[in-house]
Amino acid sequence: MVAALFLSAVLPGRAAELNLMPWPSHVTQQEGFLVLGHTPQIELTGGDERVNHALTRFLQNLSLRTGVPFDHHFSGVPAGPHFVIRCAGPGLRVQALEEDESYHLVISQRGIELTAANPLGIMHGLETVQQLVEPKPQGWVLPVLQIDDTPRFAWRGLMIDVSRHFMPLGAIERNIDGMAAVKLNVLHLHLSDDEGFRVESKSSPKLTGLASDGLFYTQDQVRDLIAYARDRGVRVVPEFDVPGHAVSWLVAYPLLASGPAPQGLVRSEYDTVRPPFDPTQEATYELLDTVFGEMESLFPDRYFHIGGDEVDGKYWDNDTSIQTWMRAHNIKDNHALQTYFTKRVQEIVRRHGKEMEGWDEILDGGLPKDSLIQSWRGAGSLADAARMGYRTVLSAGYYLDLMYPASQHYAVDPLSGKSAALSSEEKSNIIGGEAAQWAEYVTPENLDNRLWPRLGAIAERLWSPASVTDVTSMYRRVAVLNRNLEWLGLEHQASSRRMLGRIEGDDMPPQLLETLAMAVEPVKEYDREKTQGYDGEAPLNHLVDAVSPESDSARRINALAQRAVYDPSARPELRKWFIQWRDNDALLEPYLSVSILRQRLVPLSQSLSVLGTLGLAALDSIELRHPVTLEQRKGQLARVEGSTAPHAELFLVVAPAVRVLVEAEPGAR
Asked: Is residue 575 part of a domain?
């Protein structure tokens, strides 16, 4: 009898061998493997065209991953293992929040069985099978196991801002492929902002002609994108931000502005005239009714996002006609005025057959309870919305543009913190979460680099049981995901390499810049705009734009240094890194001043050399048991801290490796 091993949500034992992301609800693994050998014999029951398309992609991607033509059937070649797929129903014509996404997967030494209630579960199961494929001496194999899997949250989303920097369809589509790979199911497109209105409007052509700079999606392209996403189990939720972030609207319709009308689209931080809509004019609602009606018929999803964030009330305060109207209608303040506006817009959205979604500034107890609140300002607004009876999704903690490491996003749980104190009924109103990628400093060239692989950690938090929290396991599996996404056409690694190549040019040995690049990360939160003002037309082609938001190499080196304090076997590798850092600056320095893309890197390169020197001295002191005085230690730590100052919107993230060794040096008696 073959012994079975149950792999619970805490990932014990053999679980570390499975490269699954996100981790399933329940896994039971047995000894043995299914050898793929040749193209699987697929037996399909039920489903719709999406299942057939998913199977075609599955075999194509399997062939790319393995280099074996599993997507071909050659005459005279033995048949591969049986792959039985049973789909109970065709699914809804318009994908919905309430659909069952669960699946049941059994892999034996004889074949594969995958069953699900509808095509969504089948597509998720196929992604799991693909992640399980690995090479063994006997060939490409799948482990013998059973998986029963269902998502923890129904809303697992990604918001991409396509207004500040326009993203062509190809960039969006390849990231939909990435979303499907990690079982994310909502693509939220931020389609209008001060910088542009990005969808063709036939009812209001001024929005296309004056408010887009010629960068917009035609309505046919939108339909194609929605079909592409649906084919991969992803809903598309549109956002047209009002009443603030509305300069693009008001360039086309200046009479609807509060106060002075903007003279053009926002290009940079120096464009300071950014009025919101005037909520007191009936013409405002007539325009929104026309445009929203057109857009709501174009986007079939049940939810329609109206924005509602960051309304600058000074324009309302300074507009005498608005103030007069507010007094006449007994509206006491700007929040009440925005609530009035939101209710009027909600009526428009409902009249066209949709349910309204908005950022948490719209939260007010008087809104209809079918309104969906997206919390970006913190867990408090999430809990407040749920307590008041509104469905809500969490984005606070999932802002990818803030450059946080995957571990920080991974620690954010929609049902923790203030939400933990809610009743069971109130908690049921929290339906999931959504990562956000704002695009002030993102272009199509580095979009993938900003999303992946950190987005995989957020996807796991929203899919997997709450008890799946092992950060070490997460990083190991995210590293596998990082490589596998390349086979799907994602460009997070390839584009970074190309951008580094541009900076290196033809005159520099590439390893010199790479040594510096692996030791740095972009500054976090909103620190970049403190030293580099936002300019939508400025090229984003510097090292800060090319490197990953999180350096895997730096994380490993910092962990290695922690171990080196007590484990001598870790010290030789660490010593090699310190020598490389120490010596790199002298080699790199002659190349930095001769290029506009490199000039600002001089202080970083010098500081890395300082860290290398300090690290070597600390290692010597530890290994030789050579004591240092308290003053010497203070001086060393001060130099370590000095090396962490940001330059060129980057900072050295390997300083902790040196700091821990300096602190571990033996002290003088």
From this structure: yes
Helix (H, G, I), strand (E, B) or coil at 413: coil
Residues across the chain = 669
**Per annotation, catalytic residue among 310, 347, 440, 589:** 310
| Cβ neighbours of 533 (radius 10 Å) | 11
Give dist(CA 491, CA 444) in Å, integer: 10
Q: Which two tokens stand for residue 521?
A: 């990360």
Q: CA-CA distance, 507 to 606, in Å (whole number)?
A: 20
d(CA 463, CA 528): 32
For 525-559, what is each residue's pLDDT tens digit?
999 988 888 889 999 999 999 999 999 999 999 99
What confidence tens digit (pLDDT) does each residue in 568-615 have? 999 999 999 999 999 999 999 999 999 999 999 999 999 999 999 999
Would 10 be classed as within a structural domain? Answer: yes
**For residue 621, pLDDT beyond 90:** yes
Please say which residue of 134, 149, 164 terminates a domain: 149
Domain that holds residue 532: 494-664
Q: Domain boundary residue among 109, 131, 149?
A: 149
> Do 462 and 152 meet the contact criterion of CB atoms below 8 Å apart?
yes
The stretch 30-48 carries a mean pLDDT of 93
User: The domain spanning residue 77 has which CATH number?
Assistant: 3.30.379.10
Residue 486 annotated as catalytic = no
The pTM assigned to this predicted structure is 0.96
